[in-house]
Amino acid sequence: MNIPHQWLPGIYAIPAALRTSIVVIHQLPKTPDTLWLRLLGRGKIQQQAVEEILSLPNDDPRRFQTLNLLITWRITMRVEDLDEEDQISFMAINQAYLQWEREIIERGKQEGRQEGTQMGQRLVVENLLKARFGEMDDRLTTLIPTILTFSAEEYTPLLLQLSREQLLDRFQGQSE
User: Fold this and answer.
1) Which residues contact 6 (CB under 8 A, 6 or more apart)?
2) Do 143 and 164 meet the contact criterion of CB atoms below 8 Å apart?
3) For 14, phi and psi rounded to 5 degrees?
4) Residue 4 reports pLDDT greater than 80
5) How far is CA 111 from CA 119, 133, 146, 162, 169, in A?
6) Which residues share a beta bridge with 12?
7) What is the pLDDT of residues 16-43, one digit of tens each?
8) pLDDT for 29
9) Phi/psi class of residue 2: alpha, beta or left (left: φ > 0; alpha: ψ in -120 to 50)?
10) Mean pLDDT confidence for 140-169
């Protein structure tokens, strides 16, 4: 057989006229380049590939995209139709699903805490401005995002000590 270039172990070329190769998944080397193919394997080969996906850093886009695909696949699998080897694969995918679910919940909690903190700070600034100057008008309201770019230790004394005009002078140029 005349092979035009070097193939990875586990990839076998068929005569050029057929333009086909055969991939023997369990013979592929364990490299990032073969990870997607190894996910298509069965049993321990697939389980190892899923474990490799789970070991990727959380911010790696391949990890998130692959877990999304595995989760979709898991949802469509019917456990009762699986043989013993496929059940091993299902368990690996199930493990990936559970880890993905925990990460999504934790990310949601963190985003919720951050959003809640930001809303709380905004309410504090609004209440301080209302207590000092009565009702909020458009000019004071437009200052709030700029004021919130400072720490509470920085903006609190300013809100308590500066006059309305001084606050507008101090922050209006920055908010535009």
Assistant:
1) none
2) no
3) -100, 160
4) no
5) 12, 33, 21, 33, 34
6) 22
7) 788 888 889 999 999 988 988 998 888 8
8) 93
9) beta
10) 89
| Measured distance CA(65)–CA(13) in Å, rounded | 30
Torsion of CA 77, 83, 89, 95, to 10 degrees: 70
Nearest to 138 by CA among 129, 151, 149: 129
Tokens of 110: 């963190």
Q: Tell me which DSSP letter residue 13 carries.
A: E
Query: What is the Cα–Cα distance from 155 to 165, expressed in whole angstroms?
Result: 16
Task: Check if the beta carbon of residue 89 is closer than 8 Å to that of residue 42.
Answer: yes
CA gap 101, 88 in Å, rounded: 20
What's the rounded Cα separation, in Å, for the pair 33 and 92? 20
Asked if 8 and 34 touch (Cβ cutoff 8 Å), the reply is: yes
Give the contacts of 61 (CB within 8 A, at least 6 positions apart). Answer: none
How does DSSP classify residue 117? H
Helical packing angle, 43-55 and 61-76, nearest 10°: 140
What gap in Å lies between CA 166 and CA 132, rounded to an integer? 13
At which residue do the structure tokens 């006059």 appear? Answer: 163
For the chain, give the number of residues: 176
Which residue(s) pair with 23 in the sheet?
A: 11
